[in-house]
Give the backbone structure.
Amino acid sequence: MAEQGTDISQMSFEDALRALEDVVRRLETGEVPLDESIDLYERGETLRKHCQARLDAAQARIEKIVAGPDGKAAGIEPFEAG
Amino acid sequence: MSGPTFEDDDPNDAGLVAKGLAGDNAAPLSITEISQLLKRTVEDRFGYVKLRGELSGVKRAASGHLYCCLKDDKAVIDGVMWRTGVQRLGFVPEDGIEVVATGKLTTYPGRSKYQIVIERMEIAGEGALLALLEKTRRRLEAEGLFAAERKRPLPFLPLVIGVVTSPTGAVIRDILHRLADRFPSRVLVWPVLVQGQGSAEQVAAALRGFAELTHGGAIPRPDLLIVARGGGSIEDLWGFNEEVVVRAIAGSPIPVISAVGHETDTTLADHAADRRAPTPTAAAEIAVPVLRELSAAIDEFGLRMRKCTHRPLTLGRERLEGRLLRMPRPETLVAQAAQKLDDAAERLRRGLADRAVRARTVLQDDRHRLSAPLLQSNMKAAKQRFDTTRFSADLVLRRIAERRERLDALERVRRQLDPKAPLARGYALVSAAGQPVIATRDSAAKQTLLTLEFADGTLDVVPGGAPKKRPAAPKPAGEQPKLL
């Protein structure tokens, strides 16, 4: 519930998912007044889209660290498992 | 080789000043000379040796050289390991470890010492290795590096996963494969040696290197690290028991999953990690959720939510309809009154009709009773009755005659019953003054004067014997005859 007013686009997937679950649960109890439930539904839709976007963006991208002479990461290059 | 000679002295006497003895052509050696001689002897005689003993007094100098002692229960020998050798060590030497050290014996003339210059040093057998492991574990545990409260929660869905492992072999393939199965992710592999000399440092450096990355930098900073290595002997896994790795894991600001060796091999790295995975594949499973499941969950939430949107409407409609149903209809409101009215009207109508019928019936009845013939017959009957009723003097006279007859009869009886009637037949009634009837002789005898009543009058008499009064009693007016 702490996420109630927070910017959804800044929410982590987990928080958004939890918030979405909360929205669904509250809608399902049917105890939310009609007017409020419309807002709640809109928020739920935004949360759902936010979560879905994160899933849609899931893409395997494997790189390896190229260490510099100091042993620190100097750059990355595509990784091919040998 | 000729030295000074001193003729006068007993060669056995200790003199004040050193002098050569007869036949003694040995000049005294300088310390350096003897030290050199010793050195040569020791080094030639022993050359390479292999010693087994327990490390003690281990000291690592700033130069990188390592100084230590090797000892057993009776003897001790100093040892030194030059920097280049130290760098090749497969473990961090510390006091108490039993080691096998290989090196050259040499002397240190400057301090009258002999020592071994260790070129290779290994832990003396698995038992010793385990002892070292246990010792290290206890020390680090006491420091709190393995404490449960140090463990950090793993991110639910990491954006970037850093993997510290060998770039070749099954481990990285397993991890990448399982990650791809579950949730295709961005992975940064930091290739390291996972076995042998230098591996621990590489692993530790990789962990630190990931931690040093900054958010928004050219290289993305992982929000989850996996440190992995396949199974192997305790020696193979040794790097992951080394303090430098343990500290790097414990000190990592990024949560770490360890997957070192098989499930049965627990390294100190596993103790320090935030989560321990039994295998590299399991590490990938711990690292990310399953995309399909999340997707399904989100779809389901969406579905449930859409279902819910109709819910308030449905509920509202149901409630409204419920209210409407319960609300009395206008027509029913009127209907009741109308019914009442109809009812009253009906009752009024029927009441009037009934009343009329009843009245008519009564009237009918009365009419029947009111028929002229009936009246006439009634009149006739009355008249007849009237006619048949004789009102005549006879009615009275006869009764008078009857009464008279009864009176006469009674008069006759009365006359017969007159007590004075027997007087006519000669009986007399005796009386005296104050006594209307004297019925017995005795009572008569007591009287001075008796009156005898006869039918035709009375006669006073004196009872016989001695009438006191002779004069005849004036005759009463009665006519009863005297009985005597």
